[in-house]
Amino acid sequence: MSAKLWIPLCLLALTAAGTGTAHAQAGIGVQAGASPTGTIGTNKGDVGSGALQCQAGTIVRGGYHRDKSMSAGISSTRGMTNRVGLYCGGITTNGVTVSVVNRNPNGTPDVLSGTYAEPGTEVTNYCPSNQLVHQLGGWDREWSSGQYPPWSSSLNLVCRPLTLDASSWVRMTTGASTSVEVGVRETMAGQPAHVARGPFCSNTSTTLVSGLYMQAGGEGYDGINVYCGSLLQARHSAILSFTDFAWNQTRGGSGWLVNLTQGTSLLDNGAGTTGAGRTPHANAAANLSTVQTASEIYVLPGSNYRAAISQRPSGIAANTFVTSGTCLTGIALLNEQDQSCTLDVAGLPDIAVTLTTPAPAYSNYGQLQNIVLTATNLGPGATDGNDGFTVVATLPAGWTAGTLPANCTANGANTVVTCALNPTPLAAAASPGANGGTVSFTIPVTVNSPTVSGTYTANAALGRIVPDGDADPTNNDFNTANDTASGPLVFQKQPILRLRKTLPLGRFVDADQFTLSIAGPGGPATATTTGDGNTATGEALLATGSIGSTYTLSETGAAGANLANYTTSYTCTNARAGGQTPSGNGSSFNLTPVAGDDLTCTLSNTRAPLADLVITKTNTPGSGPNDQSGDTVARGATTLYSIVVTNNGPDAVNGAVLRDPIASRSNLNCTTPPACNGSACPVTPISLATLDTGVPLGALANGASVTVSLSCTVN
């Protein structure tokens, strides 16, 4: 049969596809040769030819071979290679022994070549436990004594165990080996025997089989070449150091651990070994020349090997520190290089602010009491003298700061006080929850008029704009929750009590004076008035009254004054908005002041009325109000008497009673009803009878008069 008959059948070959997932470059791998070597069969090179290799980090440990059916197709191609697969394993070591971990334990091959039609016998075989394919050969045969080129028919795996050298680098042993055939050398009457090829690849401690190159033909794989590679391995670890970090620095166990990565991907050799939870070295000297399995992982030579904190000791939060070093940017590793990236943990400060305000209440304007600003470092990192932290106190309206301590300044209104922490570096706390360095500032504060009594709030805050805004990440205060504080400023202004005197109608007696008194805690406060008329100068003043105490405000007469001559009332005004304003009658009263009361009370004494009533009676009014000396009347004549009541003041008179008894008349017969003239005349006309018993007059103003005329006949 002509070889040309094979060409159309090439189209049945499929491209090989690996199984499984990709992993970061962890493990021990093989640097494949630049080109394959050795040939089992023929280098045909048809479409479908290509490399067949294990995934990175794994190495050939077994094979799969399927030949073409011995009863189908062109007889000259029966028994040739129909499909090939590789079983791959990862290498692990505890620093004493080396093991091979099967990636896909004795199941479907990890990688498979393309396939051809008319499959025949399948054979799977593996190296013994913990051995890898060190060298590889196989068998091929010709058809009809050279009429056609030979094609591959079976594989021969030369397996050897692994070992470690003095530096814990993995090596292939070069002594005794185990040969494992993968495939079937089919026989056919009249045809040549199969010819052994290889083994290929050198028997050295660093070389081994890295893969195959499949030579595709028309009816199957005409040939197989071998890639000889060299072991690829490096070791990656991390050095963890601490700068300005006062808390637990234990590495390993329940302490600090790291994840070893390539870029952001966790290192994973796909065979059960990862870079998770590794114990970092304390320094470069701690990274020994032999493998340290708790700290290191075997990787393939490459770049961008990194590490990140994966575990912190109990109580240490992730925001209490910052990291730096080559573990953040990545390092490159060469073949058989044991190298650590560096990771430095720098502690951060946590400055907690507290504000202490005075317990006693303020009682007067201008009174000074102290507030205390305190900054305490609770973090693992100390502050520096140039970090720029401040603590700022803000006072409520009506309150101002007095003379300030060192390193503190105030705004123009003395209501905002800023104290610099820079001159006093604050030491780190020894452990989470402990207090580190602290600094306090005592600031005198006063309350100013006209602030009313009440409870006010002073505030304190950490000034962090400068340190948090600079280029140094190690001085950032990591916890904002304790950056502010507040406290009460209580103002209970002491009551002020005043007692004054007013005489709206003047004095009952010109010499009258009065002694004013405020009796109670802090008293008595007294004053005696001076002045005349309705002027009463003098004030009893109690400037520091006691809140909630009872006070008696009263007066007594002085200079012979008789309070019975006066009607007394009292009224109070209060400068405190909404405050009490007692009022009432009497020359003595009690009150209980509250905080902020500013009371001015006035005793108002209204004297009893004063009036000078004059009464005259005459029958000769033209000659004056009184009868003339020697005045006579004729018997039987009618005479007219004028009775005049005059008020000479100074007060008006109400209810005066005019009486002219009949019995007091001698030799007179009065029968005509009296007549009344004046504004004080009663509403009801006066009769002789009512004049006899008494006639109530109306209001008689100062200087007013009333005239009653009485006509009588002389007996």
UniProtKB/TrEMBL annotation:
Keyword Signal: yes
Domain SpaA-like prealbumin fold stretches: 497-607
Domain DUF11: 628-714
Protein name per Swiss-Prot or TrEMBL: Uncharacterized protein
InterPro entries in the cross-refs: OmcB-like_DUF11, SpaA_pre-album
Leader peptide range in chain numbering: 1-24
Domain of life from the UniProt record: Bacteria
Keywords recorded for this protein, A-Z: Signal
Pfam families for this protein: DUF11, SpaA_3
